[in-house]
Write a structure and sequence with these properties.
single chain; 97 residues; alpha+beta; 2 strands
């Protein structure tokens, strides 16, 4: 008996391609990819509000903003908040932080 693996559905929006990740700020890793996959399965648009807790570089926040959501990105680290703001500027999407 053979089984066929189900292909992972593609993201509706690719993750941000340009990200600044300075030393001391949590950089995108495997768990970030899981968050982006989950985000891709949700209906996110201009009427959505997203809260990114522990934003790190802001990868998930920027991806949600690229889908049209109003995004608030927060982190305990001031360096992470400023990194997320910078990455939102680089990717030309608005974030609240």
């Amino acid at each position: 008996m053979t089984t066929q693996a189900r292909a992972r559905p593609p993201l509706r929006q690719s993750p941000p391609s340009r990200l600044f990740a300075p030393r001391g700020v949590y950089a995108p890793q495997y768990d970030t990819d899981l968050l982006l996959q989950a985000l891709g399965k949700e209906t996110v648009g201009e009427h959505s509000e997203v809260l990114d807790l522990g934003t790190g570089t802001g990868t998930a926040a920027v991806a949600a903003a690229r889908l049209g959501a109003r995004v608030t990105a927060v982190d305990l680290s001031w360096r992470a908040v400023w990194t997320a703001r910078l990455n939102s500027l680089i990717n030309r999407v608005p974030l609240k932080g």
